[in-house]
Design the sequence.
């Protein structure tokens, strides 16, 4: 019975990430079907991460201040349900901009805070964070596959209805999850600001941005790539299913990796796999070759996310963990999402999606090399500190 709260949290992550799946995998295709061009789709997918950047620190700060992640999740999910309902009734580019801003403002903390609560729960229950987090990946994988077939059958124009269904289920399940008691220390705005100007943290965020931008650009334009190469919409679902299933496998083995290698070493390794993945994507001429390449999603994002989340914990005080986790997710999904959306949309319009992937490979390589030297610098500083 003592793990009942863990199972409820797993169920919540499943449905929360299911909602995100539909947005990431199919919204760009929906906008394209509405007659919007590449740069317009890029702008719409960039306005969401912009809202994430504005909203995420607020959600994390309020969670730490009031010592309740659950309450913030419930408030955010109410906002998601209302926004998706409004989405059904709009049909203009300007209205889509407003809807996407509102949708991402509310949807982003549902998974970010869910992951933060998972980390705290894992520590409290003495179990692997990856074992809990993999249920979010499974939700992502299963929903991407099922929704792909549903939308192929009924039409991409009905995308809002599965989004509404999943967000409502996530809200119902969220009512049953439990907060983890934190350090009873008051959190102030000054604390949050100090965290935001931590030199090591800022440098780390800068370098992982070069790896995260390609990842987010792929999230946004993978569906368009499949369709452009002649693949059916159902193939988008299969691509996500294979990739996120591989990610779930890595999360399940997270404790194995983290016990044997340092967090930064694993992030550098993930960066190497990312570089290879994007370059290979650039050479693809047949959409079916995308599917086996999606297995690399586990070795890239799976390892990267687990290791980076672990490393963040070493850089932030315990009473500011929710703020730190949300700040991290703001960078890799929010900031990276804006750059990836706008850069990707313009590159596609000027050249092609295959050229975009070659550029993404270069960005991942630069970030990986930078993190390698960052790791060397950190080891040197720690060695000097120990000697003193």
Sequence:
């Amino acid at each position: 019975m003592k793990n009942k709260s863990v199972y409820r949290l797993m169920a919540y992550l499943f449905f929360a990430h299911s909602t995100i799946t539909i947005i990431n995998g199919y919204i760009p295709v929906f906008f394209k079907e509405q007659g919007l061009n590449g740069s317009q789709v890029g702008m719409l997918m960039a306005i969401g991460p912009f809202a994430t950047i504005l909203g995420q620190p607020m959600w994390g700060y309020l969670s730490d201040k009031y010592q309740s992640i659950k309450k913030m999740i419930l408030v955010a999910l109410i906002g998601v349900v209302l926004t998706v309902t409004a989405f059904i009734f709009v049909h203009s580019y300007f209205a889509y901009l407003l809807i996407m801003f509102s949708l991402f403002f509310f949807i982003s903390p549902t998974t970010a805070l869910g992951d933060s609560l998972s980390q705290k729960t894992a520590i409290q229950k003495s179990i692997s964070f990856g074992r809990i987090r993999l249920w979010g990946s499974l939700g992502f994988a299963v929903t991407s596959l099922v929704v792909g077939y549903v939308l192929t059958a009924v039409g991409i124009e009905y995308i809002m209805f599965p989004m509404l269904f999943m967000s409502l289920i996530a809200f119902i399940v969220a009512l049953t999850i439990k907060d983890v008691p934190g350090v009873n220390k008051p959190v102030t705005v000054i604390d949050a600001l100090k965290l935001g100007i931590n030199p090591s943290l800022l440098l780390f965020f800068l370098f992982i941005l070069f790896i995260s931008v390609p990842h987010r650009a792929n999230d946004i334009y993978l569906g368009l790539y499949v369709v452009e190469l002649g693949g059916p919409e159902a193939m988008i679902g299969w691509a996500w299913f294979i990739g996120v299933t591989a990610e779930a496998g890595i999360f399940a083995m997270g404790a194995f990796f983290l016990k044997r290698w340092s967090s930064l070493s694993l992030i550098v390794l993930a960066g190497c796999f990312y570089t290879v993945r994007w370059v290979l994507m650039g050479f693809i001429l047949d959409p079916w070759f995308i599917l086996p390449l999606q297995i690399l999603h586990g070795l890239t994002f799976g390892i990267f996310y687990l290791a980076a989340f672990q490393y963040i914990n070493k850089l932030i005080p315990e009473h500011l963990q929710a703020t730190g986790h949300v700040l991290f997710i703001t960078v890799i999904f929010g900031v990276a999402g804006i750059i990836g959306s706008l850069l990707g949309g313009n590159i596609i319009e000027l050249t092609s999606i295959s050229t975009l992937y070659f550029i993404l490979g270069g960005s991942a390589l630069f970030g990986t090399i930078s993190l390698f030297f960052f790791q060397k610098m950190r080891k040197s500083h720690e060695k000097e500190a120990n000697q003193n």
Observations:
- The mean pLDDT is 85.
